[in-house]
């Protein structure tokens, strides 16, 4: 004897399943919150629950940091050659070609002139999505040209850093960019033109060892990984456990390596205040 009777018809086999559109929801890596992509964008790609900062690229940073319509990009289609005919799991030239097609970018940095709350600046933004934001000859050349333009126009320089380090496929050509960009920043300093570096997650390797840590003011986003070698490598090298929060923004602030940790929502206002104090049109 049945213990119950159905009060409604069975689910029809012909009924259509309503799928959630793919890519419409994002999961927070910190707290596990599921966030609608539109809400995440409106919150400047930070978690609405725990304020975790998602990784974003130059396009997104420029969209909320720069005055609308003010950005003029230079040397957009400059891309890396293959001077060493390098091959790992694939040819380097093929890797570059495929990454350009996938990301719509030509290398791991974009630069140009713009305005931040009506203050004219030269701005550069790195993209981790392009071969891990690695610094090859093109990244070094574009950063150098951004510095040259800042010197020529007497406009302050802002660089948004995000990198996994030097680009191994270019070997010594990549390492040379550290000295090249550092030397260029000496010219900028001699000219009395301010430079603000914004360190995002992650900022590591050769970029950290050169222009990322040479700003007159160094800002960092909350929780960003910042360092030269990664924590795993350091732990293996010294054979000791690392302190909590090692190489994160807050740890570096405590040790004096960065000047301020700034939430993404406050970044434009912070840059405006700093530029107002450091520079006059």
Folded structure, characterized:
The protein has 281 residues and is of the alpha/beta class. It has 2 domains: 23-54, no CATH class; 55-278, 2-enoyl-CoA Hydratase, Chain A, domain 1. The chain is built from 9 helices and 9 strands. It has a 7-stranded mixed β-sheet, with helices on both faces. A two-stranded antiparallel sheet has the order 1-2. Strand 6 (157-163), helix 5 (171-190) and strand 7 (195-203) form a beta-alpha-beta unit. The N and C termini lie far apart (89 Å). The model has no long low-confidence stretch (mean pLDDT 93).
Concise structural overview:
The protein is an alpha/beta fold.
SSE layout:
Blueprint: E1 25-27, E2 34-36, H1 37-42, H2 58-65, E3 72-74, H3 92-103, E4 109-116, E5 119-126, H4 137-153, E6 157-163, H5 171-190, E7 195-203, H6 205-208, E8 217-220, H7 231-238, H8 249-254, E9 260-261, H9 267-278
Parallel strand pairs: 5-6, 6-7, 7-8, 8-9
Antiparallel strand pairs: 1-2, 3-4, 4-5
Helix pairs in contact: 4-5
Observed structural traits:
281 residues; alpha/beta; 2-enoyl-CoA Hydratase, Chain A, domain 1; 2 domains; seven-stranded mixed sheet; two-stranded antiparallel ribbon; 33% helix; globular
CATH-defined topology of the largest domain: 2-enoyl-CoA Hydratase, Chain A, domain 1
**Biggest sheet record:** 7 strands, mixed
Average residue pLDDT? 93
Q: Identify low-pLDDT runs.
A: none
Structural class call reads: alpha/beta
Shape: globular
Number of H/I helices: 9
């Amino acid at each position: 004897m049945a213990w119950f009777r159905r009060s409604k018809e069975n689910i029809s086999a012909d009924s259509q399943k309503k799928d959630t559109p793919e890519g419409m929801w994002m999961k927070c890596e910190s707290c596990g919150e599921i966030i609608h992509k539109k809400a995440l964008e409106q919150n400047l790609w930070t978690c609405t629950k725990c304020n975790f900062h998602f990784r974003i690229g130059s396009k997104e940073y420029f969209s909320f940091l720069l005055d609308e319509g003010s950005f003029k990009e230079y040397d957009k289609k400059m891309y890396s050659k293959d001077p060493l005919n390098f091959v790992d799991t694939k040819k380097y030239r093929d890797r570059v070609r495929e990454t350009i097609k996938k990301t719509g970018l030509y290398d791991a940095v974009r630069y140009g002139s713009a305005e931040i709350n009506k203050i004219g600046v030269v701005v550069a933004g790195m993209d981790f999505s392009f071969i891990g934001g690695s610094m090859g000859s093109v990244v070094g050349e574009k950063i150098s040209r951004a510095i040259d333009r800042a010197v020529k126009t007497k406009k302050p320089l802002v660089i948004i850093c995000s990198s996994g380090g030097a680009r191994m496929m270019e070997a010594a050509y990549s390492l040379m960019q550290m000295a090249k960009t550092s030397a260029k920043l000496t010219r900028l300093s001699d000219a009395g033109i301010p430079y603000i570096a914004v360190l995002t997650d992650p900022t590591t390797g050769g970029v950290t060892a050169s222009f990322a840590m040479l700003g007159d003011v160094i800002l960092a986003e909350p929780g960003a990984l910042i360092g030269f070698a990664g924590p795993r490598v350091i732990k293996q090298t010294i054979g000791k456990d690392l302190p909590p929060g090692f190489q994160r923004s807050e740890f570096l602030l405590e040790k004096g390596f960065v000047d301020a940790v700034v939430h993404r929502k406050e970044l434009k206002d912070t840059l405006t205040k700093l530029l107002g104090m450091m520079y006059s049109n």
